[in-house]
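Review session, final week

We close the course with one last complete record, chosen because it touches almost every idea we covered. It is Saccharopine dehydrogenase NADP binding domain-containing protein, a protein from Haloquadratum walsbyi J07HQW2 with 423 residues. Go through it on your own first, then we will talk.
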Amino acid sequence: MSNINRPYDIVVWGATGFAGRLVSEYLTEQYTPNNISLALGGRSADRLDSVEADLTAKTETWDNIPIVIGDATDPESLHEITQDTRVICTTVGPYTKYGTPLVEACIETQTEYCDLTGEINWVREMVDRFHDAAVNADTRIIHSCGFDSVPADIGTLLVQSFATENFDTHCEMVRVYLEEGNGGVSGGTLASFAELFDAASDDTVTQQTLQNPYSLAPPGERDGIDSGEQRYPQNDEFQSVWTAPSPMAPINERVLRRSNALLGYPWGREFRCAEVIPTGSGIGGVVGASVVAGGIMLFTAAMSVDPVRSGIRQFVFPAPGEGPTRQQIKDGYFTVRAVGRCTTADGPVTIETEFSSELDPGYGSTARMLAESAMCLLRDEIDSPVSGGILTPASGIGKPLATRLRDIGFNITVGEQDKSASS
């Protein structure tokens, strides 16, 4: 089944939600109807009409944007939508509750797919249920195309590619540092976070997924030398700083290991990775790392208790559809650094990628990462030996995504540490 001659190039599924609206705004600001055939998808015609009216009022090039109506729980309506588009770009979460029928419909209709999920229990389910079917359909289903997990995954790919191209070797280990950031959190993101804890409370597969560092690797390859994410303050082995655990490590580290596996282990079967938050050197660094680690432990403990989690969801978390203000998104920023070390004939070499943006990481930047992932799929701008399956950004798209993000203002450089070389 060819998806070339379809009425829509991209459907933003969930266009009335907080993240979906940002993705739709970005696409209509960055591209014209001559560039892409765009449609807005969701359940409510009235709300979609309102979004469409706002978008067309803000631009001179978009007179109208088609609307497609469906229900995330109705496979028939999803099948009708996916067979009419080349790429589905979805922000509808929690994916554990609403994502599976859309993935299945995309595979059945050979429609390329990208999303924002950080729900590793659900990604594991998609891998186990649908990877082989997606491979056979020659269809890319690419999860985690936002702040989870593009900077870590593409950053690591750039480090490893630089090592291969310049030193004919790979880095045995890559450490990802969340160096700085400022941004808000939406109700939808927190709802997805809570769903993970709901599943972990009574589902043994979810529990195993969270416990096994290799749980997103292909079946039969779910073990290795990595012991899992950091849980306590540590003195970093690459840089002279103290580090704290990263709340994103459980998803990002597993995504990196899956990328390595899907690409055929170009980084070696003993590749190790970690994601951490640097807090500085000396006593200040120790105190900072301890505060971050303690806060994560307390929050995790609270979310692991059913009544407490219910109370937090009801009285603390914002409602789905709510999120940071436009000014907060504009004032946000982040810097992620991936650092790898490889062994050459002349001794050890340290390579680093800096990946940063001057927009809120979870929304302003994430909307652009997801939208440009969809554009890569649409234009077949792919640098990967993998043509179908349940994929990661690095294994499903690769370096062309970094190129697109650079072109729209992201700072992405790679070279030997303390040198200014860039790719």
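Two points worth writing down before the exam:
Residues 419-423 have pLDDT under 50 and may be disordered.
The two ends are 37 Å apart (CA to CA).
Good luck, everyone.
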